[in-house]
Amino acid sequence: MIKHILKRSAAVMTAAVMLVLCGCHEKTLKDNDEPVEITFSWWGTDERNEKTLNGLHIFTEQNGINVHPKYSEFTGYKSQMDVQMYSGTQADVMQLNYDWLYEYTGNGDEFYDLSELEDIDLSTYPEASLNCGMVDGKLEAVPYGFNAVTFLYNKTLLDSYGLEVPQTWDDLFAAASVMRTDNVYPISMNEKFYWLTACAYMEQTTGHKPFGTDGKPLLTQEDLAVMLEFSTRIIDEKVSKLGSEYDRRDFSMLRTAGTVSWTSDPGYFEDAAKNMKMEIAIGPYITADSYLSYGWYEKPTGLYAIRKDTAYPQAAGKLVNYLINSADMAANLEMTKGTPISSAASEALEARGLLKGIEYEANRQMMSEARLQTMCPTMENSSLIDIYMDSVYSIHYKGANINREAKLAMDKISKLNF
């Protein structure tokens, strides 16, 4: 295992070095005959990073533009971005999460208007799919694909307990009552998914939308009490471990029969199921038995943006076009970033027989579900999630009163500047 990790790390480092050292092209030379170099930042797993680096190496060979890569795992990436954005050291081209775009560009002046760059072919995108990157009438970012909360299950493990794939919240609680004697949880969730499932449950049972069309929270103290009671029940009845204790390896260790993931991210769980010779299944979007509003949303998997003051807008535009439309990049990434929106990229994957696997199945479920609503970026705001989870933990660890915590959370949320 150690030897395998070292070999993989060496491959990633070698590819990164080659990106910087590769040759130049006469149309992309500086005045002193040196090749243009731009920077690109993104997050991903080791596999996604290695595939991205391989694709960037091809870009350099084709365009004579050197790309200096900056990448890490998602954990910690946001704090790095905060430092870079506020110190002016951000990359020329960068991957952004949905809510970060609006956080960083409050006045619409932080990023380049991509519609002004002729090298970016946007004809491969349905026009409506670009709306998530529009800020004050400018196309400040372009999405790669779309995402939704997805429920994945080890069907073999569920079958061993005589359980069906859960359809409703009651099904999940019933499964927990059967499995908890063996210290097995029906699902596992991180803190963001605790928040999003609570929002979904509240909307389904009350009919209240958590956010308005302007992105401002519509949550009331009563709504928060419903959410906190739901999340507390999830913990107390052993439906999921605490969000702070989330470990995706629990799935491969059979400590959990399911997990909550984004549509673009279930590859790890598919591999784990295959290694255990077990069957993995995608579950439906869970609802209350009789819901008043569907409660589930879709959003971009990630967006590519260019810093407004980049010294090389044409080179950066070529890179963005390559990232979203190139057959070579699509073939390298395969399904590690989910299904691309670009018709050029998706056709390249289809031609190579790469539109397959659990990510593709999850994407098909998402695209065929007409009840999914468009997520506003505020819904993923980290400050909101922190406030909510602080209340969840106060109730769990300190026995705090739910209604009191709902009031405290409401007071904190009202002070946030949205």
From TrEMBL:
Coiled coil, from the record: none
One Pfam family recorded for the sequence: SBP_bac_8
InterPro entries for the chain: Bact_solute-bd_prot1, SBP
PANTHER family noted in UniProt: ARABINOSE-BINDING PROTEIN-RELATED (PTHR43649), DIACETYLCHITOBIOSE BINDING PROTEIN DASA (PTHR43649:SF12)
Full protein name: Extracellular solute-binding protein family 1
Originating organism: Ruminococcus albus (strain ATCC 27210 / DSM 20455 / JCM 14654 / NCDO 2250 / 7)
Phylogenetic classification of the source organism: Bacteria, Bacillati, Bacillota, Clostridia, Eubacteriales
